[in-house]
What does this fold into?
Amino acid sequence: MRLIITFLLVTVYSFAGAQVLSDCTIPELLRSTYDRDVKGLAMKRMQAQNSPDNLLIDIPTSVQDSIYEGMAAILNTMSEIPEADSVFNLYCVHDNAISPAVFGMIIGVDTDSPIATAWENGNTFTGNAVLDTLLADHGFVLQSYLSFGAGVLYSNEIWNIAAIADSLSGSVPGIEYVEPDFLIGGAGRIEYSTDETSNRYYAFRYEWNDCFDGCDNFYTWNFTVASDCSVTFTGIEEGGVFGLEGLPEPANCNLFTDTDEVLTETPVLLFPNPGHDQVFYRNAPETATWMLYNSLGQQVLSGGTQQRVINTSQLTAGMYWFKMLNENGQVISQQAWIKQ
It folds into this structure.
């Protein structure tokens, strides 16, 4: 006798319809904290529209800013729409599950090619002018070479790697394929769309109880941002494979509630991001302290700026929050960091 278990997805909608006037001015902290999210949403939007911009290696600023402006409008309603505070400060929702925005790419090569020889010897640059110019212009550095014929390259910035693949395919002898080095797993997502009247629609989905069988619970906050930047919270959607569960304790990153914040003119740069067993930072003052928090808001590492490298080898894969304070205890940097 076989026991057959049926998993049900339960979805509950709750709606609210008050329209709130807001402001689309984009805070710098929103740009730095949601850079990867917005670039990924921009690429997905371009793909959905079959836009000619899909061929551009640089993700168009105009597409990004339209997404940022709508997110800023939602963020700026936190005092009137508490659900916005839940998204940005309590549950800290990011687009982790399906974002195409990555810092790295894998280039498959003929193992007998000069490219393979250069990478096998640990050299980023290969002697091929087309490939080397592209790598240099976009800040790519060889991370590793895999013996079956693939170089893993990372940059400190996000580019449209699909466009890089198009530009290299057939133009560089020895290259067999180019693909993004995608993150595997990761709960949480953001969905973005527009309509013919310039309304922008956002769904911020927080996920938990994640497992390889897809047994997520989720809770989604939905917002509409009109062309005049007014915001309507349009309700929540919740569900789960095993039925409804209440929201867990919030992560409480509180990135946008610190009133004692003094962001530096030259932002502190955390790299590589995503990273593995070490992460470095630059542009930090000589006397400062830093803290690293996990997705539950628990401090997992801390230190001073005497050393410019953080040992993250003991941390599990996932998203973390990096915060740096100056000698007066003021926040000078807050940003997300992902360990692969």
